[in-house]
C-alpha cells in the first residue's frame, strides 16, 4: 500500500502514514528503521534523523551510527557525520566510509590513519587508491588475490563485504589491482588487466563485466587506440544481450561511452538515456549527458528531450533528474549546474556562477573543477591575467582519475593563455604533460599546431592540425579552416581544396566559412 501511495498516487503524506501506523501497532526497532528510510525516500532527512534518534532512546543497545552518518553526509553536515562514524567503532564499512569522507574533505593523512585499524585491510584498497598510496593498495590487492587463488575465503578467514565466493573475491581483487594500476598512470598494464577480466568473465560464463569494460574503454580513449576495433568486438553480438535480447544498463552505458569518445554525441545521448534510471549506472550516465550538452550545442531538440529548448535547457533538465547519494556526486551536480550558468552568458546567471565557483574553489573536493570554472569566467570578462594566476596553481597538481577531465582542461586553458603571451616553451611543456595522460586530446594537437605556426614550422603545424582533425570528437569548422588557410599560405592549393571539400561533406553548413579559401586556391591553380 505504501508503495502505491508513493509511486502511483504521488501522496507522500499517506505514504508516511502507512509506516507511522505500522510503528504505532508494533513499536519495534525494525519499524523505526522502516519509517526513517521512508522519510529518506521523500527527501525528508531531518525527520529521518529524528526517527533514528527516537529509536536509539527507546533501545540504547542498538547502534545507528552508520545510517545516521550517511544522512548527515547527504545533507552536508560533515562534522555530525564524522561523530556518528566514530561512535560506531573502528571496523567494517563505517571506517571505510569515514576514510572516504576524509578524502573528500581533503584530510588525506587522517584518512590513512583511519584505515590502519581495519580488521580486514583489503577493504581499504579503493580508498588507498584515492589517496595515491599505490604501494599499499597493490600489496593488499595481491594479498586478496593470492588468498583467493589458493581457495581461502579471504583475510582472517572471512570474505570481504560484498564478496560471496572465492571466484568473486578473485574478480574483485583483479578489478582493484587493475584500477590501482590505472590510477597510477600505467595505462598499458591497466589495459591488459581490464581486457583479461572482460575476457575471463565471459569464458567462465559469468556474463560481461561492465565495470571492467567501462574502464577499458576509458583507457583506450586515453591511449588513442579506441578505433582499433577491440572495443567494437567486445560490444558486438550476444556479448551485450540481456534476458530476451534487451540490453542491460551496463551495456547501454558502455556503448554510450564508446559512441561519445568516438565522436557521435547524439548517438551517445540515446544510449546513456537508456541507462539513466539504473541505480548503478544512472548517475554517471546523467553526468555524461550534461557534459555532452555543454560541449555540443547541436544536440538541442533531439528525440531524447523533444521541444524547442536549447542544449543548455536539456542539460539543466538532466541535472534535475540526478539524485546524488554521496558527497562526490553532490559536488559533481553543483559544478555542472554552475558550468551551465556560466555557458548561458546571462548576466545574472553568470554572476551567480562566478560567486559559486569562488566558494567551491575553497573546497578540496571541488577545487580543480571550480578553478576551471573561475578561469573561464575571468577569460570571458577579458581578465586573462586573473585566470592565468588561478590556473598556475594547478599546473603541478598530481593527475587523478576523478578530476582528470577538469585538470586536463585547466592545463590546456593555461597553455592557451601562455601562447597568447608568447611563452611558447612553457605552453608546449604543459601540452605534452596533458598528452601523457590523454593521447586523444584533439585540443592539445591544435595548440601544438598554433605553437609550430608561431615558430614558422609550417610542415609541423600541418601535421598537428591533421592529427587534431583525426581525433576531434566533432566536425569543428574552425579547425579545418585553420588547416586550409595554412595550406593556402604554403601554396599547397590542391590540399587546401581537399580540406575544404572534406569539411563540406561532413557538414554542409560550414561551407560558407570555407568557400573563400576554396575559391582562392582554385584561382591560384588556374593561373
Features:
527 residues; mainly alpha; 4 domains; elongated; Tetratricopeptide repeat protein 21B; TTC21A/TTC21B; TPR repeat; ARM_TT21_C; TPR_rpt
**Count of domains:** 4
Shape: elongated
Stretches with pLDDT under 50, minimum 5 residues: 148-167
Number of strands: 0
**Mean pLDDT across all residues, rounded?**
82
Listing every helix as H and every strand as E from the N terminus to the C terminus, the arrangement reads: HHHHHHHHHHHHHHHHHHHHHHHHHHHHH
Radius of gyration: 26 Å
Q: How is the main sheet built? A: none
Compute the number of helices.
29
Helix residue percentage:
over 70%
Your description of this structure?
The protein is mainly α. The chain folds into four domains: 131-155 and 165-240; 242-323; 338-437, no CATH class; 439-527, Tetratricopeptide repeat domain (Serine Threonine Protein Phosphatase 5, Tetratricopeptide repeat). It has 29 helices and no strands. The chain has helices spanning 2-7, 12-25, 29-41, 45-58, 65-74, 78-88, 92-104, 108-115, 125-130, 134-149, 166-183, 187-203, 210-222, 230-235, 249-261, 265-275, 282-295, 311-321, 327-344, 347-360, 367-380, 384-392, 404-420, 424-437, 442-454, 458-471, 477-489, 493-506, 511-526. It starts with a helix and ends with a helix. 40% of the residues are buried. Residues 315-502 form the Tetratricopeptide repeat protein 21A/21B C-terminal ARM domain. Belongs to the TTC21 family. TPR repeats lie at residues 29-62, 442-475. Residues 172-294 form the Tetratricopeptide repeat protein 21A/21B fifth ARM repeats domain. Keywords: TPR repeat.
Amino acid at each position: 500500500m505504501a508503495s502505491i501511495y508513493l509511486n502511483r498516487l504521488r501522496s507522500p503524506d499517506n505514504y508516511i502514514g502507512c509506516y507511522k501506523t505500522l510503528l504505532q501497532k508494533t513499536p519495534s526497532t525494525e519499524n523505526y528503521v522502516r519509517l526513517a528510510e521512508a522519510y529518506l525516500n521523500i527527501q525528508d532527512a531531518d525527520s529521518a534523523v529524528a526517527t533514528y534518534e527516537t529509536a536509539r532512546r527507546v533501545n540504547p543497545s542498538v547502534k545507528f551510527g552508520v545510517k545516521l552518518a550517511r544522512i548527515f553526509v547527504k545533507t552536508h553536515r560533515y562534522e555530525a557525520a564524522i561523530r556518528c562514524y566514530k561512535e560506531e567503532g573502528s571496523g567494517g564499512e563505517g571506517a571505510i566510509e569515514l576514510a572516504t569522507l576524509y578524502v573528500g574533505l581533503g584530510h588525506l593523512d587522517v584518512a590513512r590513519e583511519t584505515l590502519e585499524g581495519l580488521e580486514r585491510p583489503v577493504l581499504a584498497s579503493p580508498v588507498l587508491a584515492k589517496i595515491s598510496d599505490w604501494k599499499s593498495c597493490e600489496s593488499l590487492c595481491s594479498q586478496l588475490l593470492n588468498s583467493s587463488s589458493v581457495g581461502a575465503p579471504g583475510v582472517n578467514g572471512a570474505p570481504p563485504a560484498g564478496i560471496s565466493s572465492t571466484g568473486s573475491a578473485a574478480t574483485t581483487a583483479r578489478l582493484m589491482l587493475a584500477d590501482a594500476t590505472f590510477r597510477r598512470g600505467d595505462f598499458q598494464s591497466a589495459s591488459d588487466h581490464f581486457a583479461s577480466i572482460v575476457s575471463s568473465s565471459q569464458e567462465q560464463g559469468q556474463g560481461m563485466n561492465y565495470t571492467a569494460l567501462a574502464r577499458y574503454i576509458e583507457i583506450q580513449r586515453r591511449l588513442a587506440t579506441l578505433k582499433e576495433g577491440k572495443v567494437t568486438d567486445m560490444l558486438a553480438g550476444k556479448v551485450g544481450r540481456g534476458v530476451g535480447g534487451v540490453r542491460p544498463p551496463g551495456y547501454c552505458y558502455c556503448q554510450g561511452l564508446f559512441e561519445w569518445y568516438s565522436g557521435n554525441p547524439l548517438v551517445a545521448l540515446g544510449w546513456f538515456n537508456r541507462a539513466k534510471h539504473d541505480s548503478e549506472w544512472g548517475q554517471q550516465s546523467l553526468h555524461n549527458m550534461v557534459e555532452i550538452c555543454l560541449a555540443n550545442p547541436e544536440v538541442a531538440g533531439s528525440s531524447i528531450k523533444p521541444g524547442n529548448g536549447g542544449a543548455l535547457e536539456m542539460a539543466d533538465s538532466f541535472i534535475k533528474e540526478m539524485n546524488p547519494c554521496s558527497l562526490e556526486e553532490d559536488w559533481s551536480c553543483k559544478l555542472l549546474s554552475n558550468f551551465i550558468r556560466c555557458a548561458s552568458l546571462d548576466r545574472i546567471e553568470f554572476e551567480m556562477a562566478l560567486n559559486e565557483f569562488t566558494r567551491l574553489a575553497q573546497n578540496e573536493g571541488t577545487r580543480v573543477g571550480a578553478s576551471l570554472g573561475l578561469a573561464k569566467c575571468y577569460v570571458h570578462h577579458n581578465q586573462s591575467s586573473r585566470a592565468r594566476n588561478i590556473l598556475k596553481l594547478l599546473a603541478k597538481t598530481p593527475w587523478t582519475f576523478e578530476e582528470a577531465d577538469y585538470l586536463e582542461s585547466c592545463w590546456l586553458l593555461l597553455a592557451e593563455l601562455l601562447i597568447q603571451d608568447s611563452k611558447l616553451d612553457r605552453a608546449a611543456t604543459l601540452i605534452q604533460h596533458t598528452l601523457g595522460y590523454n593521447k586523444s586530446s584533439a585540443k592539445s594537437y591544435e595548440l601544438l599546431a598554433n605553437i609550430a605556426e608561431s615558430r614558422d614550422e609550417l610542415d609541423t603545424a600541418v601535421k598537428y592540425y591533421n592529427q587534431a582533425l583525426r581525433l576531434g570528437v566533432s566536425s569543428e569548422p574552425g579547425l579545418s579552416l585553420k588547416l586550409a588557410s595554412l595550406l593556402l599560405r604554403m601554396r599547397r592549393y590542391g590540399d587546401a581544396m581537399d580540406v575544404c571539400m572534406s569539411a563540406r561533406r561532413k557538414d554542409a553548413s560550414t561551407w560558407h566559412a570555407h568557400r573563400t579559401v576554396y575559391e582562392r586556391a582554385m584561382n591560384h591553380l588556374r593561373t
